[in-house]
Every structure is written in structure tokens, then in C-alpha cells.
Hints:
- The chain is an alpha/beta fold.
- The chain folds into two domains: 3-201, P-loop containing nucleotide triphosphate hydrolases (Rossmann fold, 3-Layer(aba) Sandwich); 213-313, Helicase, Ruva Protein, domain 3.
- The protein has 14 helices and eleven strands.
Amino acid sequence: MTASTLTHDILAQVSQRVVGQQAMVERLLIALLTGGHVLLEGVPGLAKTLTVRTLAETVRTSFSRIQFTPDLLPADVIGTQVFDQGTATFSVKRGPIFANIVLADEINRAPAKVQAALLEAMQEKQVTIGGTSFLLEEPFLVLATQNPIEQEGTYPLPEAQVDRFMLKLRVGYPTRDEEREIMKRMAGGEAIPITAVAGPEELMAARKMIAAMYLDPRLGDYIVDLIHATRAPKDAGLADLVPLVEYGASPRATIALAQAARAHAFLRGRDFVSPDDVKAMATDVLRHRVLLTYEAEAENVSSEEVIGRILGAVPAP
């Protein structure tokens, strides 16, 4: 299976069930092809969960959905030790985190100790239960959703944990025509069947191709300059942003932006990365990593505006 066939077949299957939301679907596919985790933020009813579940059905891998609730415990996510009275021994009962694609639905509805249960799995691709570490099978991907409009009964993710996500996507409303199509498709009430068109072998082969894709040294310098500008806006000629930015992006953002740009080029059938690929992915990679001050909030300045200013100020090769 060629690269173009792989991506075309997956996108074709997803589009049978999901109307519109091309940007979200493409970003989720980029995450799947790079092994990065994704945080999807949007109001209820925008097909976030449906899209993730549909994407998982297009790939012959295991899928697990965890509904985060206030009474959830870490053991409900990673698993626990169970005592067998017959043999007087403990055995490990694995939790839903042991899957290739894990949907952490409404992740901000569970307290911090449950959210933190994902940290080791997301970063180290392993889980520790009772002092024993278990490696998670590749591909391993955490796709989390959260509702931005509710504050009661929710627990915002700590900044350090949000940084574990390669991308943070803002999911918007469909257009009028797309909403009419949604209403038409859902009239029957039955889910459209999806065919699995790829397996772990194809995904891992695509990842190797993306990792080996040519990235010009000048483009690498451009990525580093963009990330550095989030930490020191004055060096990029944006002194007015200094009082608005509390913390800039970490080196993890540099790695993520390079990977995402390669995958973006891969989806367009190219074997090299262009400045447009970097610009296209910069906002999704950086919006949760550029932390603003109270002064920025008072002036209604968003992280997207700051990133846009930086993209406009740092010259592309």
C-alpha cells in the first residue's frame, strides 16, 4: 500500500460517517501517523467522539473508550492487582489504557490523580502496576476530549500535562450545508458501517517514511526561531508581546512541530517539508504551550493571536 493510498482510504472511510470537520480529521490522522497525542476542545455535539471512534475503526487496532467522571479512580484507567484466594497470589488486571487507540472522553471531568494516571503511558509508552512495568503496544495514541464552556464539576488539566499532547485542536461548528447533511444522514438513526483499511504494519511503515522525510537545515532553523520567539518575543521584534507571555513553548514543541510538518507534507504527497507545512501546523502545536499572563487575559488576547503575530514576524526561508 502506497502512502497516498493509505491516507486516501482512511480519509474516505471517515468521510462516510463524519460530515465536514476536514481540519480535525486531518490533524487526527497526522497524530496517528506520528504517534503524537491529541487534545480536542469544543462544545458538545461537534462529533469529536464520533470522529475518534470512526478513525479507530478504519485501522485494524484495538480501541478503548474511557468516560472520565468525578468518581473515577486511577485503577479504573491503568488497572490494578487482584488477590486470588485460591492460590493466595496477586494477579494483574489490566485497565482500558492497554489499547492502541485510547479515547479519554471528557478528560477534564475527572480529578487530577486520575488525569495523572495517563502521564507515564503518554510519555514512556508503559504502565506501572504494583511495581511492575508493562510496555504498551505500538501504535499507542491518547485522543482526549474536553468541553471548554463548563466550569462546574470539571478539573482543568495542569499545564505540564497539557504539554504531553502533541496537538490541541479547537473544534468549531459545521457550516449550514454541512449541518443539513448531518441531519439527513442521521434521519435513519443507524451508524454507517466502516471498513478497516490499514493495520499496524502500514502505520509503522508510514511513520518511518515520515521520520526519514527531508527537512532542509534552513527550515529547521526556522522552526527553532519560531519556538524561541515564544520565549523571547523581543528578539523577534515583538517587544509589545513581552508583558503578555508568561511562559513560552518547551523543546518538546520544537520536536512536535517538526514531526507535524513532515506529516502534513506526507498527506499532500510530497517527500520534503516546506515553510507552508510548518505554518499550517504551528497554531495546533503551540496554542496550549504558549501560556499568557493575566494582563493578556484582561486585554482579551488569545494564544492564537500571539502565535499569529510570531508567524508574521519571523521570516520564513
